[in-house]
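Incident log, structure service

09:12 report received: a user says their structure output differs between two submissions of the same chain.
09:20 pulled the input from the user's history:
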Amino acid sequence: MEVQLTADQEAFVRSAVDSGRFARQEDALHEAMLLWERQERRRAEILAAVDQAEASLARGEGLTIASDDDAAQLAGRIKRRGLARLSAEGNTP
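09:34 re-ran on a clean worker, output below:
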């Protein structure tokens, strides 16, 4: 595959190589593709989660937040789940 970069993109890649960030231009482009792939996978995960949430709401499984106390309780549950998830992944704050 042959790809045409803009002048700014070429300068950006060249700068990354010249600074020692990458050994070769191909390495910089490979890194860019990996980041794009990761972003697209994450995007697909988010869209799937939105679809699941919409289906859950359609089934009547949503929560009703009627007061500040309800909101605070929900925020606390979300925070605890997030901290537990970070801990399980070895990313303890």
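09:41 both user submissions now match this output. Likely a transient worker issue. Closing.
09:42 reviewer note: The radius of gyration is 22 Å. The chain has three helices and no strands.
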